[in-house]
Amino acid sequence: MVERPADTRPVQLCQANLGALPKCVLRPEYDRAALTPGIVHIGVGNFHRAHQAWYLHRLMQQGAAQDWGIIGAGVRAYDAEMRRKLLAQNCLTTLVELTEGQRRAEVTGAMIDYLPPQEDNGPLIAQLADPAIRIVSLTVTEGGYFVHPVTKGLDTDHPDIRHDAANPDRPRTAFGAIVAGLRRRRDAGVGPLTGLSCDNLIGNGQVLRQAVLGLARLSDPDLADWIDTQCTFPNSMVDCIVPATGPTELELVRALGIDDAAPVTHESFRQWVIEDAFCAGRPDWDKVGATFTDRVHDYEVMKLRILNAGHQVLANVGEILGLNTIADCMADPLVSAFFRKVLVEEIAPFVRPVPNQSVADYITLIEERFRNPAIVDTTRRVAFDGSSRHVGFVLPTVYDALAASAPVNGLALVEALWARMCAGTREDGSIIEPNDPNWSDLVTSANAARDNPTNWLEQTQYYQDLSQSGAFRDAFDRWLRVIWDQGARQALTTYLGAQL
């Protein structure tokens, strides 16, 4: 790592100061003033800026994609603070790649503006109606698509969905804004655009299509038909470990000589696999490492069931035991052995290999990435929104395993550890602060399950009928009792069959 001299101040990040940045810092070589918009991105968090925006930036560095600039957007009041920070530095972002013993900084400039969030989403709707916009992309989290927990269709009873259906010109949600923008495009004869989800969901394009079409159909069936026939919603798989930004990351960037109010740290690995179904054109992301394929489903199943489910395998027991980061979890011999056994024996049998990569090799790759001590990815961040992440990442394998009469002992232990974590305390007595949109209900169920473990599985919004499955229910009951009576480490030791 090259750090700034001790007697110099870090350079305030902005367009005018790019030339003054330390020579070791990569920066945009294209004329940002000449960029024109082509993409609206909703949900401008760390992941988007380290992943999709980076791919576009790299294309721009080659002199391509100059008409695909990103307009940032948000639909909640808290997006205003990120907008303030980014506009103050001309929407530039410092990315710091972290590998063990090395740090490399790059300033990216693919984002050219950030819309003001408003309650009626007026600026976002107007931008989506602009003929220059050909893609609307989203990172709004796995739980942000209003999927009904039982039917898996659009949750039409959700208050925000009901509001948008009754007030289509003043929507609250991202999907309501997209519908309103598409209505204006249709009425003006502008033509359709592509909706591109970049969230960790199986069939994320199909889920986005369901949200947009379902909402449109509630207020304007003719518009829904137009969207259905004219717009496209490609599935995609995204991957890069991107920790949250806090004081440590801010100081790290300052040590590199840059004063950035919203920097992003990330690992060296990136992957983006996309279905090539863009109704209004697209950037050539494949020229900078993305993969266009009709096998997105196989890639996403491998990633979601191994990396994302693996995160849940580690994070819940890590929280219980007071292991602060994913790297700390992997450095713990008992926890890392638990991780490998569950993935190899119970998850891998239900994952298909992808071109040029076996499932076994992928598990080894994930272990290496998770062990990287330079990536300070907290167990708290990874455990966030477990009510969406367990349903989306872990439980699909449980259902497949039960259908095949395959073992679910380790998967039941994973769920028992989540139930124990949701009781809200660690084994050392410290408090686990609320970490889920449904935290209060989860805490209530978790404490009721201490005496009767089946109470946890009776949360049918997550577990459907798993409380009726003898094999899973009995294993879950046994593990949760062991965890409460003897501790999480004893449960892991018993599962592994040996004292490590």
TrEMBL record:
Kindly give the Gene3D superfamilies that the UniProt entry links to this protein: N-(1-d-carboxylethyl)-l-norvaline Dehydrogenase, domain 2, NAD(P)-binding Rossmann-like Domain
**An MF annotation (GO) of this entry:** mannitol 2-dehydrogenase activity
* Entry's EC annotation: 1.1.1.67
Q: Which SUPFAM superfamilies match?
A: 6-phosphogluconate dehydrogenase C-terminal domain-like, NAD(P)-binding Rossmann-fold domains
Q: Which UniProt keywords apply?
A: Oxidoreductase
Q: In this protein, which residues make up the domain named Mannitol dehydrogenase N-terminal?
A: 38-287
**Residues of the Mannitol dehydrogenase C-terminal domain:** 296-477
UniProt enzyme class: oxidoreductase
* Pfam families documented for this protein: Mannitol_dh (PF01232), Mannitol_dh_C (PF08125)
Check the record and name the InterPro entries matching this protein.
Answer: 6-PGluconate_DH-like_C_sf (IPR008927), 6PGD_dom2 (IPR013328), Mannitol_DH (IPR000669), Mannitol_DH/Oxidoreductase (IPR050988), Mannitol_DH_C (IPR013118), Mannitol_DH_N (IPR013131), NAD(P)-bd_dom_sf (IPR036291)
Classify the source by domain of life.
Bacteria
Entry coiled-coil feature ranges:
none
Q: Report what the protein is called.
A: Mannitol 2-dehydrogenase
